[in-house]
Amino acid sequence: MTYLLYPPLILPCPCGWRNHILAPPSSTATTMNPVQRRGLSGSVQPGQDFVGRSRSRSVRCMANPRRVKMVAKQIQRELSDMLLTDKVLQFAVLPEASLGADRYLSSLTTISDVEVSSDLQVVKVYVSVFGDERGKEVAMAGLKSKAKYVRSVLGRRMKLRLTPEIRFIEDESFERGSRVIAILDKIKNEKSLENQNGELSDSSAHDDDNWDDVDPDEGIIYVD
Amino acid sequence: MAKPIPKIGSRKNGRIGSRKHARKIPKGVIHVQASFNNTIVTVTDVRGRVISWSSAGTCGFKGTRRGTPFAAQTAAGNAIRTVANQGMQRAEVMIKGPGLGRDAALRAIRRSGILLNFIRDVTPMPHNGCRSPKKRRV
Known about the structure:
The structure holds two protein chains of two kinds.
Chain A: E1 9-12, E2 19-22, H1 50-55, H2 65-85, H3 87-93, E3 104-105, E4 108-116, E5 122-130, H4 133-145, H5 147-157, E6 165-170, H6 173-197, H7 201-213
Parallel strand pairs in A: 5-6
Antiparallel strand pairs in A: 1-2, 4-5
Helix pairs in contact in A: 3-4
Chain B: H1 8-14, H2 17-20, E1 27-34, E2 39-44, E3 50-55, H3 69-84, E4 90-96, H4 101-111, E5 115-121
Parallel strand pairs in B: 1-4, 4-5
Antiparallel strand pairs in B: 1-2, 2-3
Helix pairs in contact in B: 3-4
């Protein structure tokens, strides 16, 4: 009894012949993989077999990683569908839709990625908003205010044992990528303009010399 | 499939119809259909007659890579390149469907220098019509 602070709860298993021993109610996670004990018929001898159990007071359950990916994909589909069809969410993201201007948009919200924790309890949704600064703020604020509503609708749509907590995070990778590509395009255009303006035969001969020396496998290849 | 990836040259040869009217259109409409597995970008004129189109699949991506935003970006770039030569300055964008292509294609269109007049969402919405397919079980 020195190992335990609370008496364990011994519940009968629905499958009949095994007794599940749950950790005390203060622990956070639920058990998905029941602890298997050999030779248990009734109660458990105190002090016996609890050396291992006292370490794992809070039982963690890890779902199969493939299942985690499938759930993430399904959540992404459901949330994108909700953004398209659900009126409440659309009004939250785009307030002028309530006035009737729902077909001419000032900003476009897309769900770019969904990350699910391995115990399927926390979901991070990365949202990317296309539009100006104000539209972005409005959209993110609207989404974050509707997080509980989204969670309830998701629970109704998907059959999960526990509906996960949903967090909306702004995804800036699209913006950054777009900016980088714009800069690269600008540089490329400037370079091509320079090449057109100052075309010298010397430069082409110089390039021909380099072709023999340069090993095609190594070095950086510049694409014109 | 044994079909090779079509090169840009062969696509131009196939579209003989467009050679008849090599018209200059300053204003057009760009339709982006972004599903989860693919993105199709179609450029039409204001009335709806198709000028050119491109999709993630025709840009050389296959399988799961067609659904990525980068594929949508290249598809949009491809579709606009043929049209920018014809001198289109302003365009209206109509977006259909969920999917990552919505955002990526929009950004690519804006980057290419074409002025965006309006952005519309024309996802088909039934007024409770046909029965939708059954729920996927995970």
